[in-house]
Amino acid sequence: MNNFTKLGFIMATVGAAVGLGNIWKFPYMVAEQGGGAFVLIYLFTIVFVGISVLIAEMLIGYLGRGDVGQSFEVLATKNKYLWGKSVFMAFTGLFILTFYSVVIGWIVRYIFLSFGSLPVGIENSKELFESFLSSDFIPQISFHTLAFIVVAFIVIKGIKSGIEKANYFLMPVLMLIIFGLFVYSISLDSFSTSLSFIFNPDFSKLNSDVMLSAVGHAFFTISLGMGTILTYSASLPKKTNIVKASFWVAFFDTAVALFAGVMIYAFLFSYTSEANSGPGLVFISLPVVFESFGVLGNFLSLIFFVGLFFAGISSAVSLLEPVVMYLIRVLKTSRAKAVIYSGLFFYIVGILVIFSSIDSTKEYLTWGDKNLFDWIDHITYLLLPLGGIIMSLFVGFVLPRELLINTMKNQMNKVVFNVWIFNLRFIIPIALIWMILDKVFS
Length: 442
Ligand code: PFF
Known about the structure:
Blueprint: H1 6-17, H2 20-32, H3 36-64, H4 68-75, H5 80-84, H6 88-113, H7 122-135, H8 137-156, H9 158-186, H10 191-199, H11 208-221, H12 228-233, H13 242-269, H14 281-291, H15 295-330, H16 335-355, E1 366-367, E2 370-371, H17 372-398, H18 401-408, H19 414-441
Antiparallel strand pairs: 1-2
Helix pairs in contact: 1-9, 1-13, 1-15, 2-11, 2-13, 3-4, 3-10, 3-11, 3-13, 3-17, 3-19, 6-8, 6-15, 6-16, 6-17, 7-14, 8-9, 8-15, 8-16, 9-13, 9-15, 10-13, 11-17, 14-15, 15-16, 17-19
The chain binds 4-fluoro-L-phenylalanine.
């Protein structure tokens, strides 16, 4: 079996976790959802919910040693067939990939833009970005195709020579870029404004919407509830300390989000006091800020978007792997074919996602107040917590107690173990069910 090394596993899992969610989504969500209060709930969720589910998901893969469906089936003591249906989670990744790959395409476009003249003034920049989204479908499809090829290439090479190897390169470079930009941003006068924007909670802004977005985002950002972590953990070397590995993943993921958030707002506030620019934050506002730095700005823009591209690719790879593992087994096919089948699905739906923003076609791909892109994003934020509930209940109630205790006894003391199980059995499912119902019926 082509197992990860321990370090390779951490790299790949951090690579899965650290993605567009940290550098593109987190910063604009902070502004949209009222600043520090959102950050506080998000951090709270990572610590009290995220890490517990992360350990549970890793454990299922580590003990089950199969793809998503297989691991549940092997470990379930009864209702194996039903638990095997948890394999739907693997398809959540494919679903996310449809828009994820499109956004990676936008990033490629901004990498090219960094070599030329960056937009001057927010209005110009907004027009540039919006016209790209609403009319330039050929470049968008080309960049989406490029993202598809890179992702397919890495996944075809497999766990060890594809995913592990790619992450050994992508992760350190990404961390260096984000940290380097962060250190540079300290020299800006606006650094302290950014810090207080991110860390000063204004509790009057806290409402159930903010809380739900924070919980949903916590799942998205550490890649929980769709079987990525489970699938990677099936290739973990025996005797890995799962608890430690989970802490590292949560730590790096949170650190990158916070560093990126503070850095981006330090840059932004050096130019304007307007924080809320939604998903266009890194594509509309940041290039204008970089432009005001002259040639240095082109360089900053280039490394920022290259970093974002690396973050996107390492996560995109992890979104595809669960379904590929599953298809290899059920279709008894080669890895290459499994990648092509699943890849073509996200590639084609991705093209529809692109057309759902194009002026002349969007009316056919819009239902209610959302186009296809927004629907997929919206549904994802429901599917991941649903996956989280299933994993929590499975470890909390179904895994034999003996097996649990034997596996975890060297990794947690008794009190922590009991708190963890209680959390998985009751607190997490109740909180997540409440969250899903609220989102569906609001
Ligand atoms: N965690 C990734 C991000 O923050 O961009 C996205 C993601 C990857 C979600 C893999 C879920 C997943 F399984």
